[in-house]
């Protein structure tokens, strides 16, 4: 497999619907992939899929909010493949976004659910960033990509706690871009609109999906490959003048100033 990411070692942290799409796409561009997820079996399936198509990948169980676990996945990349060139931090605790009838507004949000989401979606992004930076610096620089969400911007009528848990990604990303830019590290966030994959198709009604598609100027639903394609650009040398940015990948559904 030859491509823009040939010779690069990249961690994909969070291997669910979007993450498996990212890992496969980056591998198809030639990257060596280290994939981690709290669901270790899920991560293993993604690695096997890549290997079965001729790519190079290993998997490990990862709790992205745990410092020892984040250090382990970085150590795995370095010991197995000689260094680290990029990390896409993509995992999320999504129970807070699918609250099964519990209130989701500012007065009703369950605080235990909120704390659980903050641990993974906010602290976890900081923990993985801190684990990766020294290895990226040793390599002469690299790329950190974060998966944010449009819910941060749009008032999040039924996703208040989820939006709060993901909003800290943006100041983290801008700080890393500023503080470590001179060492060759770039940091950017992708802000997806609704991105449909098998797990979501199983829980969202046809009416809901059609509504989302029609709300976007392109009149189509997003798929994991749309996020993966932007990740590949940001990981590649083609993206080496892009840093500190939030890139919406949503078919134009939400146009920020
Ligand atoms: N699908 C969408 O429409 C959409 C829209 C906007 C943003 N996002 C963001 O995209 C990312 C991926 O979402 P998805 O739709 O693929 O969801 P998903 O549930 O399929 O994937 C999330 C993955 O994170 C893993 N995870 C949870 N806690 C973890 C932890 N502590 N450590 C490591 N892994 C952990 C889960 O096991 C799961 O595999 C998330 O950050 C989400 O907030 C998704």
From TrEMBL:
Protein keywords: Oxidoreductase
E.C. number(s) listed in UniProt: 1.1.1.-
GO MF entry, a single one: oxidoreductase activity
Cited Gene3D superfamilies: NAD(P)-binding Rossmann-like Domain
Signal peptide per UniProt: none
Class in the EC hierarchy, top level: oxidoreductase
InterPro entries: NAD(P)-bd_dom_sf, SDR_fam
A Pfam cross-reference name: adh_short_C2
Family: Belongs to the short-chain dehydrogenases/reductases (SDR) family.
UniProt protein name: SDR family NAD(P)-dependent oxidoreductase
Species in which this protein is naturally found: Novosphingobium rhizovicinum
UniProt lineage: Bacteria, Pseudomonadati, Pseudomonadota, Alphaproteobacteria, Sphingomonadales
């Amino acid at each position: 497999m030859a491509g823009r990411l040939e010779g690069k070692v990249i961690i994909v942290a969070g291997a669910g619907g979007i993450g498996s799409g990212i890992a496969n796409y980056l591998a198809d561009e030639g990257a060596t992939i280290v994939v981690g997820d709290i669901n270790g079996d899920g991560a293993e399936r993604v690695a096997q899929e890549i290997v079965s198509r001729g790519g190079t990948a290993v998997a490990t169980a990862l709790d992205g909010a745990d410092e020892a676990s984040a250090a382990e996945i970085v150590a795995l990349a370095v010991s197995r493949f000689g260094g680290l060139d990029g990390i896409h931090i993509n995992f999320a605790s999504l129970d807070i976004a699918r609250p099964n009838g519990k209130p989701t507004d500012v007065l009703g949000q369950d605080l235990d659910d909120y704390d659980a989401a903050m641990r993974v979606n906010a602290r976890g992004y900081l923990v993985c960033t801190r684990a990766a930076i020294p290895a990226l610096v040793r390599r002469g620089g690299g790329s950190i990509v974060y998966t944010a969400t449009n819910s941060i911007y749009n008032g999040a009528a039924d996703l208040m706690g989820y939006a709060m848990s993901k909003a800290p990604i943006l100041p983290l990303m801008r700080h890393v871009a500023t503080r470590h830019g001179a060492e060759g590290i770039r940091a950017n966030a992708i802000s997806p609109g609704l991105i449909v994959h098998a797990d979501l198709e199983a829980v969202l009604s046809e009416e809901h999906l059609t509504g989302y598609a029609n709300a976007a100027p392109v009149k189509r639903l997003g798929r994991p490959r749309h996020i993966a394609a932007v990740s590949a650009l940001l990981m590649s040398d083609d993206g080496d003048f892009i840093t500190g940015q939030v890139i919406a990948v949503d078919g134009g559904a939400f146009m920020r100033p």
